[in-house]
Design a protein that fits this description.
The chain is built from 2 helices and 12 strands; from the N terminus they run H-H-E-E-E-E-E-E-E-E-E-E-E-E. It is α+β, with helices and mostly antiparallel strands. It has a 12-stranded mixed β-sheet, with helices on one face. Strand 7 and strand 8 form a beta hairpin. It is globular and about 55 Å long. The termini are far apart.
C-alpha cells in the first residue's frame, strides 16, 4: 500500500470509523463462520452428537456424520443413511425402511426445515462470557427456513458448541458434543441392509 492509499484509509477511518469497523467486523465474522463450516461440511467429513429442543414441541438426540453429499444419523427411534444418491430412513418402532432419492428434502427428513444458503445472511461476532458467538440474520423477510442463528464456538479450536436457531417466530436449541473433524471412511454411509432384513421396505422414489 503506497502513501496515498494509506492517507485515504486513514481519512476514511477518521471520518467514518463506525462504518469501517462494521465492514471489517462482518468480514471477520464471515471468515470465522466459513472456517467452522468447513470443519463440519468439508470433504474430510465430520461427526457430532446433537440434542435438539424445539420449544418443547420436538425433541431429538443422536449422532450425525457428514462427508460431502453423504450423511448419516442415528437416534433411539430413527436412523438414516445417504450415500449421496439414495437415502434410507429407518423407523425402528414401526419396523419400516423408507427409500428416497438423496436430494429429496421434502420427505423423510426433519432437516428440510433447516434450509440455509450462506449468502442470504449477514454475519457478526462477539466475545461472550465463555464462547465466541457468531450472529447470523436473514437479509430479508422472503428467505424461507432459518431466520436467525446464534452459533457458539469453542474459543481455542472454534469447534461448534451449540446453536440457537430461529424458525419463523420460535427458537430451537441444538447442543453439540463429541465433535470430530476428519477421519471418516465411506463405509460409514453404506446402508447395512442385513440388519433390517425383517423390516418392511417402502420405495418412495
Amino acid at each position: 500500500m503506497n502513501n496515498v492509499h494509506k492517507i485515504i484509509v486513514l481519512f476514511i477511518s477518521m471520518m467514518f470509523p463506525s462504518v469501517l469497523w462494521a465492514a471489517t467486523h462482518e468480514v471477520e465474522a464471515r471468515q470465522l463462520f466459513n472456517r467452522t463450516y468447513q470443519m463440519v461440511f468439508g470433504p474430510q467429513g465430520s461427526s457430532l452428537h446433537y440434542s435438539v429442543n424445539l420449544v418443547g414441541l420436538y425433541k431429538a438426540e443422536g449422532t450425525i456424520w457428514y462427508k460431502g453429499k453423504k450423511i448419516r444419523y442415528e437416534e433411539p427411534r430413527y436412523a438414516s443413511w445417504s450415500n449421496g444418491i439414495t437415502k434410507y430412513l429407518v423407523d425402528k418402532k414401526k419396523k419400516t425402511v423408507s427409500i428416497y432419492n438423496a436430494n429429496d428434502q421434502k420427505k423423510g427428513s426433519y432437516m428440510s426445515k433447516f434450509q440455509f444458503t450462506q449468502d442470504d445472511y449477514t454475519y457478526h461476532w462477539k466475545n461472550g462470557k465463555k464462547y465466541d458467538v457468531i450472529l447470523i440474520k436473514a437479509k430479508h423477510a422472503g428467505i424461507k427456513g432459518i431466520r436467525e442463528v446464534k452459533l457458539f464456538l469453542n474459543r481455542v479450536n472454534h469447534y461448534p458448541v451449540s446453536l440457537k436457531i430461529k424458525l419463523a417466530f420460535f427458537w430451537t436449541t441444538v447442543k453439540i458434543t463429541n465433535f470430530k473433524s476428519g477421519g471418516l471412511t465411506d463405509d460409514i454411509f453404506k446402508f447395512p441392509s442385513h440388519i433390517y432384513r425383517s423390516y418392511k421396505y417402502v420405495d418412495e422414489r
